[in-house]
């Protein structure tokens, strides 16, 4: 009888331990699904549609290209180098993409001349666009530097060239058979910025290695809201929205100094995998904004996890948006072409 009691106690202890292990495993699995974020399950087809995706050779951009290709679209991949672009196509073909609907064009957003050359080449290849995903960007540079155009590096790459590209491609988007869509891949980093001095943005004494990125993302969202109102007033059948893809474990994120160290990368790898999104997860909200039928004619909004999200209070300041837009036209040498659209009202 004593042995029976001992066996029974041991069995219950084993049974309880097993239950705890199962619960722990389930929690880990559910946690991973939570950190993956919202997923876009829309079945929208893209056969016959034409898209441009910047920053297309890696990370989120590459995943967006893959999904568009799977759905039948023709995609022009804007890549900083042709070599990286061809390498990306090789990878995509191995994943089942059709190479004949993938086209590479070189684009260096630290140069206005490169943006202009890109637009000229694209216009020679297609007379319309169904969508534009402005994804290219840089998160961190170790020191203050100006581009050959005289602008702070992050500011030009992330903001000015993004706007120049958008403005230059609006005529092609307007020729879309229904409604063209522009998606700017921005960031929640814009929320923490409390100042945006457009008159000092290129100055060394205003530069901050952390704030530079957030300021560029704030400007993207402000431009999105301002330009959307102007497009409606002008009668353009083009929507423009910005979105936060999440915190993604991609080459862009690994530009941060501590993550550039191979030792730290090895130590942090399991944690980054678990807590951060991968590139495919990060592509979900941009794809939702680009393709979802739910979007309809929604424009001038900021999305996070496929839902409209709050923005920095500076975004709601119409005078600040107006000042930024006028400055941007001047900085991008677009004033001659945009005299009629200098106001949201």
Question: Would you write up a description of this structure?
Answer:
With 345 residues, the protein is an alpha/beta fold. The protein folds into two domains: 36 residues; 299 residues, 3-Layer(aba) Sandwich (Rossmann fold), CATH 3.40.50. 46% of the residues lie in helices and 11% in strands. It is built from ten helices and eight strands. The chain has an eight-stranded mixed β-sheet, sandwiched between helices. Helix 5 runs parallel beside helix 6. The radius of gyration is 23 Å and the shape is globular. The model has no long low-confidence stretch (mean pLDDT 87). This is Retinol dehydrogenase 12. Keywords: Membrane, Oxidoreductase, Transmembrane, Transmembrane helix. InterPro entries: NAD(P)-bd_dom_sf (IPR036291), SDR_fam (IPR002347). GO terms for molecular function: oxidoreductase activity. It comes from Trichinella pseudospiralis.
- SSE sequence, one letter per element: HEHEHEHEHEHEHHHEEH
The CATH fourth-level homologous superfamily of the largest domain:
NAD(P)-binding Rossmann-like Domain
Apparent shape? globular
At the fold tier of CATH, the topology name of the largest domain is Rossmann fold
Rg measurement, Å? 23 Å
Q: What's the number of extended β-strand segments?
A: 8
Percent range for helical residues?
Answer: 40-55%
| Total number of helices | 10
Provide the spatial order of strands within the biggest beta sheet.
3-2-1-4-5-6-7-8
* Cα-to-Cα separation, first versus last residue: 89 Å
Unreliable stretches covering 5 or more consecutive residues: none
Structural class: alpha/beta
Overall average pLDDT: 87
Count the domains: 2
GO molecular function, one term: oxidoreductase activity
Protein name: Retinol dehydrogenase 12
Organism: Trichinella pseudospiralis (Parasitic roundworm)
Keywords: Membrane, Oxidoreductase, Transmembrane, Transmembrane helix
């Amino acid at each position: 009888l004593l042995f029976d009691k001992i066996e029974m106690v041991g069995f219950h202890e084993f049974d309880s331990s097993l239950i705890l292990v199962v619960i722990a495993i389930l929690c880990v699995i559910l946690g991973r699904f939570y950190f993956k974020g919202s997923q876009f399950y829309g079945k929208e087809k893209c056969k016959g549609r034409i898209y441009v995706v910047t920053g297309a050779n890696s990370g989120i951009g590459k995943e967006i290209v893959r999904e568009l290709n799977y759905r039948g679209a023709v995609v022009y991949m804007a890549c900083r180098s042709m070599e990286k672009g061809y390498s990306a196509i090789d990878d995509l073909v191995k994943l089942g993409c059709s190479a004949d609907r993938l086209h590479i064009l070189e684009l260096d957003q630290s140069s206005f001349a490169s943006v202009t050359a890109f637009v000229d080449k694209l216009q020679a290849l297609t007379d319309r666009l169904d969508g534009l995903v402005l994804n290219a960007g840089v998160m961190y540079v170790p020191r203050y530097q100006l581009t050959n155009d005289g602008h702070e590096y992050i500011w030009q790459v992330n903001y000015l060239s993004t706007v120049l590209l958008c403005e230059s491609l609006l005529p092609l988007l307007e020729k879309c058979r229904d409604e063209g869509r522009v998606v700017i891949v921005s960031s929640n980093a814009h929320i923490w910025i409390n100042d945006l001095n457009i008159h000092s943005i290129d100055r060394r004494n205003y530069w901050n290695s952390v704030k530079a990125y957030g300021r560029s993302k704030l400007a993207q969202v402000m431009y999105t809201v301002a330009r959307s109102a102007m497009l409606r007033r002008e009668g353009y059948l083009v929507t423009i929205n910005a979105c936060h893809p999440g915190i993604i474990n991609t080459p862009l994120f690994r530009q941060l100094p501590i993550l550039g160290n191979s030792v730290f990368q090895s130590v942090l790898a399991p944690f980054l995998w678990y807590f951060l999104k991968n590139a495919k997860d990060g592509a979900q909200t941009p794809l939702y904004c680009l393709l979802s039928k739910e979007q309809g004619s929604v424009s001038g909004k900021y999305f996070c996890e496929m839902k409209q999200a709050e923005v920095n209070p500076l975004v709601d300041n119409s005078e600040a948006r107006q000042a930024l837009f006028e400055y941007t036209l001047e900085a991008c040498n677009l004033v001659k072409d945009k005299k009629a659209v200098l106001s949201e009202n």
